[in-house]
Amino acid sequence: MSLAQALLDAEGIEAGYGAAVGSGEGASQVLFGIDLSIRAGEVVTLLGRNGMGKSTTIKTLIGALPLHRGRIRFGETTVAAAQAGGPRQALRPDAIARLGVAIVPEGRQCFPNLTVEEHLIAFADTRNDQREAWDLGKLYALFPRLRERKHHMGNQLSGGEQQMLAIARALSTNPRLLILDEATEGLAPVIREEIWKCLRQLKDLGQTILVVDKYIERLLDLADRHLVLERGRVVWQGDSAALRADRSVWQAYLGV
Amino acid sequence: MKLARWLPWVALLLLAVFPLVAPSLGLDFYVGFVRRVLIFALAAAGLNFILGFGGLAALGHCGFLGVGAYTLVALAHSGVHSAWLLWPAALLVAALAAALIGLVALRTRGVYFIMITLAFAQMLYYVAVSLRPYGGDDGYNLVTPTSFGVGLNTLNDSVFYGVVLALFTGAMLLFNRATRSRFGHALMGVRDNETRMRALGFPVGRIQLAAFAIAGGVAGLAGAMLVSHNNFASPSMMHWTQSATLLVMVVIGGVGQRWGGPVGAAVWIGLEEIVKAYTDYWHLPLGVLLVAIVFLAPRGIAGLLQGRARTTRAATSAAAQEGAA
Amino acid sequence: ADPVKVGLALDLSGPFAVGGAEARDAINLAIKLLDNKLGGYPAEFIQADTAGSPDQARQIVQRFVQRDNIDFFTGPVPSNIALAVGPVLFGAKVPYISSNPGPSQYAGEQCNPYFFGLSYQNDTWDEAAGQWASDQKVKSAFLIAPNYPAGRDHLGGFKRTYKGEIVAEVYGKVGQIDYAAELAQIRAAKPAAVFFFLPGAMGINFIKQFVAAGLSKDVRLITGPASAEEDTIAAVGEPILGLYSTSPWSHDLPNAANQKFVSEFRKAYGRYPTFYAAHAYEAIMAMDAAVKDVKGKVDDKEAVLKALKAANFASIKGSFKYGNNQFPIQDYYLRVIEKNKDGVLTNKTLSTPLKSYRDAYYSQCKM
Amino acid sequence: MLNGIGYGLMLFLLAAGLTLVFGIMDVMNLAHGSLFMGGAYVAAQVHTSSGSFLAGLLAALAVVLLVALALEALLVRHLYGRDHLAQVLATFGIILVADDAVKMIWGPAPLMASSPTALVEPIEVLPGLPYPSYRLLILGVGLLVALGLYLLVNHTRVGMLVRAGASNRAMAEFMGVRVGRVFSGVFLLGAALAALAGALMGPITAVQVGMGEEILIPALVVLVIGGIGSVRGAFIAALLVGLVDTCGRAFVPMALRAVLPPAAVSDVAPLVAGLAMYALMATVLAFKPAGLFPARG
Amino acid sequence: MSATTATTALFQVQGLVKHFGALRATDDVSLAVNAGEIHALIGPNGAGKSTLVNLISGLHAPDAGRITLDGVDLTPLPMHARVRAGLSRCFQITSIFPKVTVLDNLLLAVQSSGGRHPGGSGRGLPRVLHTLLADRARDDALHAQAVSLAERVGLGGRLERLAGTLPHGAQRQLDVALALAAEPKLLLLDEPMAGMGPEDSERMTALIQTLKQDMAILLIEHDMKAVFALADRISVLVYGKVLTSGSVDEIRGNPQVQAVYLGTEDVA
Ligand SMILES: Nc1ncnc2c1ncn2[C@@H]1O[C@H](COP(=O)(O)OP(=O)(O)OP(=O)(O)O)[C@@H](O)[C@H]1O
Ligand SMILES: Nc1ncnc2c1ncn2[C@@H]1O[C@H](COP(=O)(O)OP(=O)(O)OP(=O)(O)O)[C@@H](O)[C@H]1O
Ligand SMILES: [Mg+2]
Ligand SMILES: [Mg+2]
User: Fold this and answer.
1) Which of A125, C9, D41, E98 makes an SS bond possible with A174, Cβ 3.0 to 4.6 Å?
2) ipTM for the complex?
3) What is the β-pairing status of strands C165-172 and C140-146?
């Protein structure tokens, strides 16, 4: 595990919604210069109250939103770079995904016209021949419920089942970076526990993870580092111990 | 923004004085031409109402045009010639037909709705073709012109024109009010999120059915007026390509734009007339125009005229339209 | 003086575009031969495309009448357009010389001094076919046409003169693509002949599938000119060999006017004309003769009508004169499609089953 | 019966490309009919001048693919994200242009397309029941295409990726799918099927301007009855429409003749024949608003 | 199960069954909610909770069973009629009108049921004409109702925002507000806290608490903190069947429930 080289490196990213491309200005800029870097094998969280820009950050990282300013690098590749008024360059989201970024998005986004099993086959990375690689059997072992529902269409699942499917779908690509945006939303407590256990295992296997979730206590046990967002800016960062200690952060920025 | 507001009314005013000045400009013929445009504009406005505000892409609207037309034919055949009886009758029968068809068709959504309305219109078409007493495929020549009472009838060009323009204006006023009424908002709500509307307690089926019947009735009225205008009815006016053309008019004009239907009808029919005069290959430029509109002016010509002001509203309904189609 | 104005509503696009194009080519040829004049007087020819729709045609004719003040009208291919535009023309006292359709209405009860059925009455070619089939002692016939009034009229015409057994009368769909079911019925019925009226693409589909089904060996195929002219021949190719048809005109009629027309047409367009072209050409020639007769005074409607009715021109159809209903009394020919000496597939005239024949409706006309 | 199935398979062949592009990719491409027409014209032209049916078929595929490539890159690509109405309108525009273009190139008169010389003679499929051999070829191709499509769409990853891209393009891209490229490929495949259908159908129908629109409606009807997006549905619907349509023409008049006076029959029977296909669709949709085999829940 | 409160309960479900193909998503469910009560429904994912809500609200038709509210048999009624009868719901996946403003969302909601036609225009033609032609923007009474509704759920300051651009929590609040417009006797809430942070969750909890005075609530939620804070009674659904019902403490302590649902998660 190389500590020197970050797997993902984002510098001063600014982004938002509906603003003219490249202008960096606009009615709804949401991110105002976020720096974020994740080393291989690290588990990092984005924390902050609702609407502070966690999902927006993630959407910008995966290329779903245009970068107004800043630079994003993944591995050796510059994924996006933009300066004010200057040239913009950006990879398309699918290209970024193929670099090894997989996401469990807000709102699950299961495909209504694919069966459960097809979700898990269609995007699977079959080239990966690591022993620990996720395959259909392992995914079903993680979520036995999905095996029971394998012929259901994506929209014929309960909310929680869809959430499981979204996680399994992301894992099926055997990503270098796994991004989870509220992946435990709508899951029963027992299943939530399963997910935490699973993430723990993944971490132990060296999986790099960026995670957003509201169960901060669990994240403290799991993650190496935390970033707290407030109105599109990083207002605090540090490791779990530091966050545990700093109750003022909890009150000011996490609403607890 | 100001301009877009006043433009339609200025246009209506110009239209009102047109038959008075036309003779002195040597444009007599165009009185009849504009009248025809107005009749199609009326039908298009009806379609725009259900398509733009109700999200119901009906590809069989000319079926109701035909129902209205043949209602008039049937009554005229049996000796009724007063416009004040014929036209309302056509409107009512067409609205009734639309209500009955809507009962079945509105069970479907999206492309299925497009296709089922097409199917019903084609059935109406075949019925009209097999109506031997009314000429079947050959069509029916209206021997006695439709009369307005007091010795006036449709042969009197400018009187007929005036009546059509008045009815058209009245219909537009009503449509414009309807889109701002509770009903109109409910209709748009159904378009945007049908399940939520049900859960709010709206009788979604009835709302859509009412809108569908209104639009069908208006089409029927337009159909009857068209027969009075041409003194001729034929099944070809309800062929699916006619319905498609009507849809084209609405989209060119601007789906869900208040004046989208009429603007589209005027532009399309006008262009057809002009382009035809210059080339036999008149489909080609119109096709290119259509593609250009789709790409360059997705909100239609009326949308262009509205300009960038009020974009939130207009863009909203346009975007919502996309979701619904 | 003002030029003589002629309104031409042509079906340049839509389902009748083939006939429309033929008509336009022939009219342009006639105009060229007449040096842009009618009866020696300058003339203006105004063209418009009906797109095959009666509604649009009606619109166009309204414009011709109101804006352009035309003196003569011709052009449309289908009967329904003729019926749609007729009243407008008659109301404005504009003579309509039909270059193709001859609906029974205009031949009978609705006959009008302003309508000249120059070409033929719709049923007559079928009557000729029925007559010929009877003459040939064809024992049984199977009839097929699309489901619309003209289809029924045409089969009615055949039945009027045919004396053998009619094994079945089948109406298909307008625009039908596949005739397998009908061909199966024919196979089962084993008629001696099939008479069909299937204009346009329907006829092409039918003939191709008829031959492919192997029926052509045992069953004689008879039709009118609509499915037996150059356009159909070119589209069907070899399988059309041996198709019998009846027509009031054929490109190999030996009269001088016809020889001139056919050779000029071939010179100009490199192909044989069809009956659409022939009648459109003749319609212009009829106007030319009438204008000459009235010495250019086309505003004198009485005189123009009289001159038109006199038909002072050498008809390309051989014998030609109008009956009381202003529909022709003329000969009808039987043709068969063969390879001519140059190896080109085309019609060859065999006989004249009906001579100086008039239609069945003239007695209903009160003119 | 056999005729109904035969017509049904022909319909399926016509609808096959549309099933891909419209059913699976969810792009309402009316210009599919124009590609069909293009295929028929090119095949007829090349067959006539070269004398080889196969050359005609290949030329049709090549030319239509080229046209489709240009069409996709210039127009259709920008329509993927748009609503159906925009797609209908733009492709309707393409129809208008295509019809006039064909008329400019080949004239309004229909073109000759003959079946390959080897397949002119009918074959006896059953003793005493000759069947046109060329038709058999078409039926065979129809069956093959049906099978191929079914496997492609339902049992290959490509099929899954297309469906994913069609229902939620953004999410499919987040999963690493090159949706643009996949769609282009599928569009071209659809165009190739249109060209194939056009080239094959030419010899038994009229090759003329407007032939595309004529088949478009029945093809759409087939798709809708089957349930948009379901290859199996389209296949069954095609057979059903073929049967109903054929029966409407052949048997209904016979049946009616038994109960009604002949005059009434001659009025009603043709009406039934014309209506049959549409009545079938309306009935199916009235009871199953998303077709027989709704593919998207 | 329903025997205990069968006669007095405001709302009752008896023997409800729903199949999805071979799957028995709702398996003979009987349930009762008393007036003024918050009744929570918990259970593993896919247990059939949302399906039950869909059956009750009329989005799906049950294969068997009966639903009554305040003595009225709702089973044969379509969805919109159930709303009129006093039953209103929110959605697990936020269901609002994203492309219009918050105010327009609320106007639609109050127009449906809360907003009476002014001027006592009564029934029949005048009412039809009013519905069809009167400019809604001029309807001050309707407007006032919408505004007060917004204030009730804490959206008072965001009336002119396009609903789709609201933060998630606010959208959930709007969803609840839409359901409240009907002034229901029974409110169905399907995971109202889904996707909310602690702060928003607390706000929503408080809101639900205030609603309790006016209506009975059937609450589905996986956020146990909220459930234990709010619920008067809890029913546990497993594989489409009611496993058990009881007070918060009974459920919490039930080892069966812990095994299938609660796990070891500490919810203080
Ligand atoms: N599609 C959109 N258009 C405009 N504004 C948006 C859109 N989506 C989000 N926003 C706004 O951007 C801001 C940040 O939203 P974001 O979704 O990134 O927050 P978050 O930190 O993920 O919060 P949550 O916990 O609610 O998911 C919010 O103010 C939100 O209103
Ligand atoms: N339309 C459908 N077709 C087929 N099966 C369905 C359909 N909708 C739901 N199901 C199945 O029914 C079961 C119950 O689903 P439901 O949505 O009611 O669960 P739930 O209890 O709300 O779960 P969650 O807590 O995850 O939201 C699930 O297993 C689901 O897969
Ligand atoms: Mg978020
Ligand atoms: Mg649920």
Assistant:
1) A125
2) 0.87
3) parallel
